[in-house]
Each structure stands twice: as C-alpha cells, then as structure tokens.
User: Which sequence fits this backbone?
C-alpha cells in the first residue's frame, strides 16, 4: 500500500456530485469573476466566523500583503511575527517594505506570547499571529499587548479555518484576519483563493476597492490598487465545502485523536493541544531527533511525509538581506530540524492510518 502525505482527490470525491453541479452552474451562468457566488461565499464565511465582513481575494499571500498595505504599514515599520512560519507570512510583511521581527515559538508551534514585549520598539506597528498547523494561538496575552502598545493585530489563518481560542474563532481577534483557500488547506478551493475578514466597515471597503484596481465604480479609480479578485467557480466550490466544513474538521479530529492515542515510540514527540484552544489539524506534526532515518524508514514502507518547514524564513536565501545569523532563533531552528508531518487528509482510510501507525511504532 502506497500512502501519500496528502490526497486532495479524496476531498473532491467526498462531495463529487456537488462540486460538479456547482462547476456546471457557474460555467453556464456567463459570469466568472466577482459575482453572486463570491458575494454569497463572503456572507456565508463571515457568518460562520462571527465577523462583520469577508472580502474575497486571489490568494492567502494577497490577503496578507493587502492587509498590511491597507493598514498603512510599510517602509521603516516593524511587524512582529513568529520565526517558524510558512514564508508567505513574512512576504506579506516585506512586500510592503516593512521589516519582520521574529519571535520564538512556544511548545504548541505558535508565537510565544511571553517573548513579544521585549521585541517591541518605537518602530513596531503590528503583530502578525500565525495559527500554525491549525491550532489557535494564545490570543489573550497577544491581544492585551497590542492594546497596551497600540499595535495592529493581524492573524494569518491560512491553516486555521474554524479553530477557536476561548470559544472565539481565529481571524476575529484583531484588525484583520487573512485566509488562504489553497487546495491543501482545511477549507480548500480547486485553485488559488483567499479572503480578508474584519469587523471594520472602513477596512472592508478599502480592501474591496483595492482588490479591483482601486475602483469602486467601473473605470473610476480612487487609488492605485491591484488585481486580486476571487473567481466565481472557486467561490462556488468554497460554498460547497463550507457547508461540510464542520464534518470535515470532525473527521480530521478523529484521525488525529487516533494518532495521539496509538502512536508509541520514544523517538518521537507528539503534538500538544493548548488549554482553551482548539486544533483543526491542518497538519499532524511530530518532532524527532532522528528525522532523516524516520523519513527513509517510512519511505521504504511506501509512506510519504513532508517537512513543514525545513528552512525557517530568516535563514532562507530570500531573507539573507535581513542579516539574521544562524543560531539567533534556536527554538525556531530546532523545530525546522526536527518537525515532520505524518500523512493526514479527509477521506483517509482507517487501514491507511493503521499502516502509518504500525510503521512509526516499529521504527
Ligand atoms: C498557505 C499559507 C499562506 C499563503 O497562502 P497562499 O494561498 O498559498 O498564498 C500564508 N500563510 C500560511 C501560514 C500558509 O500556510
């Protein structure tokens, strides 16, 4: 049996008829970009999260950089972000000319709230919280600090659709929540898609204008904007998936609880769940000091794994210009050397998971 780290096709076949019907409906409608599917999805997703506005954009990265642009954060400004994130979080900051200031993660792979205050300077304008791997971050102390120092709070929810902290949805704590609906995300489209959510009327309006060449009315351009529009067909697919999201999250939760209960090997550390937070399990990430050996062993048994992520942004070639030396973020760097994501996807068969569990336990 060959087991891949992810199987996006399974997610399609789970609701094949609904996706195909929606595709035909949109294709036959004669309207393909920013229309009634997008509007309906925006309303439905905002309702799901309990937030006032949702504005669809073309990707998660667009959601991030447009968020900082709209907040007026750019050259000369600093944004605090955790060191161990997907590089898109950091690019969302640097595309605007702002400087990322990295903070070490806690034992749940999210920003260590106790290490933020020491990084605040006169140039700090915002904190970007990433709810990595699907677990909500420790939002209470982060939100309190942002209030105390008058900083903007932006959430990268690309991996946390529906995850909660203290009974409140991620994406609704700060000024702006940024979502990606890339196919591999828990709420995934069948192409690129993203959204910005906010409780501010002003921010929502600004994003709506900015995403469509800065125009409110066709061919009247108020600001220099961009083209970051959401397609009707992707919005339609997202509406289908959103209807089933709670079931899909439950399915992954059952899978991960089975992993947590049945994986027994002294050479691996299992992920932990923070009290007061929920985990929607975008990834099931273990840690091990013997990662290369484990990857090879599992590969030999036909089991694929992925490293999220092998190079932390501050050590990537792209960010050498920041001049942050290796060794300056020891926890972040340790995670990059030891994390490993086990196969996990909606539609994963019990026997597939048993094969993985058995192999990891025998390693
Ligand atoms: C996927 C992802 C993004 C970027 O989303 P795209 O839709 O691929 O642009 C940003 N941040 C995190 C944490 C992600 O996982």
Assistant:
């Amino acid at each position: 049996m060959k087991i891949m780290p992810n199987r996006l096709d399974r997610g399609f076949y789970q609701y094949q008829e609904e996706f195909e019907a929606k595709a035909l409906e949109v294709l036959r409608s004669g309207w393909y970009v920013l229309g009634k599917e997008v509007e309906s999805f925006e309303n439905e997703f905002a309702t799901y999260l309990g937030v006032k506005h949702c504005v669809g954009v073309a990707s998660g990265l667009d959601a991030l950089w447009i968020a900082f642009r709209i907040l007026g954060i750019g050259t000369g400004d600093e944004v605090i972000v955790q060191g161990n994130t997907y590089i898109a979080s950091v690019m969302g900051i640097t595309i605007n000319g702002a400087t990322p200031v990295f903070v070490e993660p806690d034992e749940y792979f999210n920003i260590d709230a106790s290490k933020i205050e020491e990084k605040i300077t006169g140039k700090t304008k915002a904190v970007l919280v990433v709810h990595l791997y699907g677990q909500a971050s420790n939002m209470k102390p982060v939100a309190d600090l942002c209030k105390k120092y008058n900083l903007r709070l932006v959430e990268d929810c690309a991996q946390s659709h529906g995850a909660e902290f203290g009974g409140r949805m991620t994406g609704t704590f700060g000024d702006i929540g940024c979502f990606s609906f890339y196919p591999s995300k828990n709420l995934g489209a069948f192409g690129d898609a993203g959204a910005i959510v906010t409780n501010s009327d002003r921010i929502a309006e600004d994003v709506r204008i900015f995403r469509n060449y800065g125009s409110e009315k066709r061919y009247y351009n108020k600001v220099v904007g961009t083209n970051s529009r959401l397609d009707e067909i992707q919005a339609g697919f997202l509406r289908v998936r959103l209807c089933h999201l709670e079931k899909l999250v439950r399915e992954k939760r059952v899978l991960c609880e089975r992993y947590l209960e049945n994986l027994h090997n002294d050479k691996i550390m299992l992920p932990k769940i923070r009290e007061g937070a929920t985990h929607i399990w975008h990834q099931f990430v273990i840690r091990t000091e013997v990662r290369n050996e484990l990857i090879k062993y599992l590969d030999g048994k036909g089991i694929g794994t992925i490293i999220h992520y092998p190079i932390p942004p501050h050590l990537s070639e792209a960010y050498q210009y920041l001049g942050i030396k290796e060794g300056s973020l020891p926890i972040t760097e340790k995670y990059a050397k030891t994390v490993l994501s086990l196969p996990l996807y909606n539609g994963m068969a019990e026997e597939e998971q048993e094969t993985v569990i058995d192999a990891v336990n025998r390693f």
